[in-house]
Amino acid sequence: MAEYREIITKAVVAKGRKFTQSNHTINPPQHPSSILGCWIINHKYEARKVGKNVEVCGSFEINVWYSHHDNTKTSVVTEKVDYKDVIKLKYRDPDCLDDKIVSAKVIQQPNCVEAVISKKGNRILVNVEREFLVEVIGETKVCVAIHHGKCSCDDDDWEDELDDKEFEEIDPDFLVAHEEE
Question: What does the alpha-carbon distance between residue 33 and residue 17 come to, in Å, rounded to a whole number?
Fold first, then answer.
């Protein structure tokens, strides 16, 4: 009959994921004639657990390259955007003892989906998307069965050593022959 032990270990005790689309209005100093490019740089973020959610607070810069004065000149306008995404935790470990560590991974960096000139012609409308996966790491209990005696696995089974006969079977021209074909 097996005995059981409770082991306290760190594990992922909650997870969440969120996809966000946001719209931003940029007011350039000149009326834009056309949009030549839009890119997002300098993305920074931090995540922390707040109640039963994780808040990801961050910022990025939207850079829009546009032409103006009837497509005779170009300029770049930059605007910093701050955001806060509240991510609900879908999986929660009920036996969690401590859940202070939060890991946030960017699945989709903030990315410009579309940049267009407003109907009045004096603003640039930018649609941005981003996606995060968050994990909360905490201490939890795991119950394991204890089997007394020798382990059935043998460390000798894991050896990857080649003997002399196996070395003799290796074709040293293998790579050269395939490169010539």
Answer: 39
Q: Quick check: 128 and 40 in contact, CB under 8 A?
A: yes
Handedness of CA 117, 119, 121, 124 (dihedral sign): negative
Please name the residues in contact with 6: beta carbons below 8 A apart, sequence gap of 6 or more.
141, 142, 143
- H or E element that contains 85: strand 73-88
Find all residues with CB under 8 Å of 28, minimum gap 6, and list them.
64, 66, 68, 75, 77, 123, 124
At 97 the pLDDT is: 76
Cα–Cα distance for residue pair 113/21, rounded to 1 Å: 9
Alpha carbon distance 110, 22 (integer Å): 10
Name every residue whose Cβ is closer than 8 Å to that of residue 132 and which is 6 or more positions away in sequence: 17, 18, 47, 56, 85, 87, 104, 105, 106, 107
Give one DSSP letter per residue of 45-67, joined into a string: EEEEEETTEEEEEEEEEEEEEEE
Q: Kindly tell me if the per-residue pLDDT of 69 is higher than 60.
A: yes
Distance separating alpha carbons of residues 44 and 37, to the nearest angstrom: 22
What's the mean per-residue pLDDT of the chain?
87
